[in-house]
Amino acid sequence: MSQLPPLEDFRVFVTAARLGGFSVAADQLVVSPAYISKRIGLLEERLGVKLFMRASRSVCLTLEGKIALEWAERLLETHDQLRAELNREQELPRGRLRVVTSTGFGMHCIAPIMSDLAFRYPDLQIDLELLDRPVDLVSEGFDLEIRIGGVLPEQMIAKRLANNQRILCAAPSYLEKHGFPTSLEDLKRHQCIGIRERDQSYGIWRLAKEDEVYSIPLTAEMMTNNGAVAKQWCLKGHGIMLRSIWNVQKELIEGDLVRVLPSYGQQADIHVIYSARLETSAKLRACVLKLEQSLPGFLRVD
Question: Is the pLDDT confidence value at 1 over 50?
Fold first, then answer.
């Protein structure tokens, strides 16, 4: 036997064996008796044994047929369990869901959303990892990544969740001491706070005005890989910072930070990135839907 016979042949065989005849099996499976006879014959040929002793009006199992029936029933049961398990996986969010995003964004926006998701689906075990570095979803075992800005990987599926823009801002105390920059060229004489977060390079700011993009080299005397630290320094008057508007809107409203060069910004839309199609995984589908529904509320600029 070079390969396993088709599963359908085992199903025909088990039906005929249980009912004790080809005609009754044909009636139950809604096929012709000739079809039953053909499938049984092919199965016997593939296995190299006789499964039935045939009489004019009935059939009975041979010794080999009884052995084959036991194993065929196990095979069909295992197959049915597999199909049921896969169907449940596609229909009911459950199991471990590994999510990765950057630290500040994850704490401010994603953690509350994952909390709501966990309450809604008790069979879902959520593992949220906050990393301020690029990640490889497949090799590091993540189900999905929520990314702000950056180049989207071509080999993955990416879905935009929300618009987002990074803006330039500084504390009033810094601006009182150093003055407002009036052009991009002015930034070169100002102190800037560098952030090494994923797609952000502390050495160059790429800022856009309408359809034009400009690359501005920084004078960054203070730099960090953590956005919360950069914001803390900015509030204390150490320099100008480039930060997502959702992250500084409260401070802008309260006057603790001031936007500078408001005509310029950096587009950094938020995407969810994953490798499997949503229709194949209920947990992915539920998570992406929840992000789509909830994230805009966290990013709203009043």
Answer: no
